[in-house]
Amino acid sequence: MTSQTLTMFKFILVKLAQLVPTFIGVTIVAFAFIRLLPGDPILLMAGERGISAERYAQLQAQFGFDRPLPVQYWEFLKGLLHGDLGNSLVTHSPVVGEFFSRFPATMELSLFALAFAVIIGLPAGVLAAIRRGKTLDHTVVGISLTGYSMPIFWWGLLLIMFFSGTLGWTPVSGRISFMYFIEPVTGFMTIDTLLAGDWGAFLSALHHLILPAIVLGTIPLAVIARQTRSSMLEVLGEDYVRTARAKGLSSYRVIMVHTLRNALISVVTVIGLQVGAAGRGDPDRDDLLVAGHRQVDDRCDLAARLPLGAGRSGADRVHRDDRQSAGGCGLWGH
Amino acid sequence: MAAMSIPAAPGTFRYQLGSFWKDFSASRGALVGLIFIALIFLVALLAPWVAPHDPALQDRSALLVPPVWHAEGSWRYILGTDAVGRDILSRLIYGARYSLSISAMVVLISMCGGIFLGLLAGYFRGWVETVITRVMDVVLAFPSLLLALGLVAILSPGLTSAMIAIALVQLPYFVRLTRAAVIGEKSREYVTASRLAGAGHMRLMFNTLLPNCMAPLIVQATLSFSTAILDIAALGFLGMGVQPPTPEWGAMLANAREFMGSAYWAVTFPGLIILLTVLMINLMGDGLRDALDPKMKRS
User: Fold this and answer.
1) Record: contact B153-A318, CB cut-off 8 A
2) Farthest-apart Cα atoms in chain B, separation
3) How many angstroms separate the CA of residue B7 from the nearest CA in chain A?
4) C-alpha atoms less than 13 angstroms from C-alpha of A305 in its C-beta half-sphere
5) Nearest to residue B237, comparing CAs of A291, A34, A209?
6) What is the SS3 assignment for A146-213?
């Protein structure tokens, strides 16, 4: 092992070790969420009928609410490491199951949103850099700044109003037309329909994905276009690009091979961050992807076109005071 | 203008201000942003005189009246009315007060807290730094909106808890930025000189280091301001922020949602004003960054 790999190895180890306190901290916060939300979960379960004192005590013991908080936390942590997030206090089914049944929908939508953002954002950034200072450049910069500033919960409503309402082009909600019943295999509607070999159903699933993907892709699109433009401009000023031009290479080759490849380094980093956001909900300013998902997806009743994503589950739970689940979904954020 | 013609000596405050203004005003977008934001602030401040109606006044004879450019619209309600006959324009004007003041408070709280913690971490290093950065990592590990939602749920929904929750979510950015800047500046000679001259910890931190770390913090403050406006509106939209009937932009959107099929104006205008305000602040932020922080300059 060379000294360089050894240093690298050490670096990775240190980084991993630093994760441990963060992880513990996150579990403490998640546990605090579960316990601190106002209202007594057992009284809530009992509903308006009320509950006898014995039954109350029995239920407290059953859920472990009567034990000291540190013990409760320890149990929570133990369960967590075994992949057990407890049972939902509302539906009584395991939280992990609920979470994983919704996760593919979140992933699918996030991936489509990201694909949309990359397919439009990357070329837009490249073109803007090539035409620096021209109308096209100003347009791209303006649009990406607007996208960056977009309140996406409103953007979703607006697009639904226009494309689903006025024009009637896209469906208002759901993941697929009710005409189709597809046996879930992977949970990804587009893959499942293809596995079933049903082209009509596949197109229907795509049709249902378009609008939410555009809404959620808007901010990543803006971020990617901005980053591509600025790193392209940086590379265009390099000596080797000038040399390439001086050699008499076609400007297409100079742009695509000499400039774009080098400019992509930082762009890929940014795209990577957005992917992370898709599965993790990075709280970065740029990464409203998942947060937006939650916003668009869970309270817009008409806008409930977005599938039953995990994000929805999280916010939904806060509303329904299902603390066990909310804590679990929050942990997924880590 | 006579005062401007005397060139200020380099190094003085006036010189710095002048060169800052030259860089800042070089960007047309930044100027437009500044003017727009100044206007919004002015309108918010003068709301009782500017707004044509009382924002809470319900005109039962004018429910969901469309904006003035529609055949059924009237000059009485320029941007139309909502489902209970309240003037949308007046509500937007009063709403600016909430969005701007809450966001300003959020930035103030998280900036002060962040600067303090960041200074401690960057100045003392060692275990102080470890504890502070780890705790901030935990905050960062949660999706910001979910964390804010949870905090608001614990603190009970409302204006103050929304403010605290969003300030907490924004805190790590200020801490990280201050810490990095302090670490960078700490080894500079003027700091050593100041220490040799006998400056104590407090003086070194707040008088020597802090002023030299402010540039990126001011830029971050603008960004935070726009994020805070978005987050406040998002919380209001989710029903966890400012509570109705307060004319807060996000809450207005949420109320109007059920009428979006029939009354587009009730949904469109609150969102549009959120978008415009955030956009203009971001434009201004870009200009500020170019003027204050050559390192972060966008090409």
Assistant:
1) yes
2) 77
3) 32
4) 28
5) A291
6) HHHCCCHHHHHHHHHHHHHHHCCCCCCCCCCCCCCCCCCCCCCHHHHHHHCCCHHHHHHHHHHHHHHH
**Closest to A94 in 3D by CA, of A105, A82, A106:** A82
- How many CA atoms, within 13 angstroms, populate the side-chain half-sphere of residue B145? 33
Structure-token match 């996208």, residue found: A147
Given an 8 Å threshold on Cβ–Cβ distance, is B239 in contact with A291?
A: no
Where are the CATH 1.10.3720.10 domain residues in chain A?
Answer: 101-294
Residues 34-53 of A with CB under 8 A from B: 36-38
> A19 near B134, Cβ under 8 Å?
no
> Residues B231-236: what's their mean pLDDT?
89
Highest mean pLDDT: which of A304-318, B11-25, B166-180, B252-266? B166-180
Chain B residues 139-168 within an 8 A CB cutoff of chain A:
139-147, 149-150, 153-154, 156
- What distance separates the 2 farthest-apart alpha carbons in chain A? 89
User: Closest Cα to residue A213, out of A279, A125, A152?
Assistant: A152
DSSP single-letter state for residue B267: H
Q: Alpha-carbon distance B285 to B287, whole Å?
A: 5
Stated pTM of the model: 0.80
pLDDT of residue A283 exceeding 70: no
Spatial separation of the C-alpha atoms in residues A15 and A50, rounded to whole Å: 51
B102 or A20, greater pLDDT: B102
Q: Which chain B residues touch A22 with a CB distance below 8 Å?
A: 134, 137-138, 141
What would the pLDDT profile of A210-239 be if each residue is shown by its tens digit?
A: 888 898 899 899 989 998 998 898 888 888
What's the pLDDT tens digit per position in B134-188? 899 888 887 788 888 888 888 888 888 889 999 999 999 999 999 999 998 988 9
**Per the CB < 8 Å rule, is A154 touching B134?**
no
- Beta partners for residue A94, in sequence order: A87
CA B194 to chain centre: 35
**Token pair for B276:** 């415009």
Integer Cα distance of B102 and A189 in angstroms: 42
Q: What is the ipTM of this complex?
A: 0.80
How far apart (Å, rounded) are the C-alpha atoms in residues B270 and B212? Answer: 39
Residue B127, Cβ density class (10 Å: 0-12 exposed, 13-18 middle, ≥19 buried): exposed
| CATH code of domain A101-294 | 1.10.3720.10
Cα A163–chain centre separation: 24
Taking an 8 Å cut-off on Cβ atoms, the answer to whether A145 and B237 are in contact is no
Nearest neighbour of A151 by CB, restricted to B146, B223, B233: B233
Please list the residues that pair with B87 across neighbouring strands: B81
Q: Which helix (H) or strand (E) holds B163?
A: helix B159-186
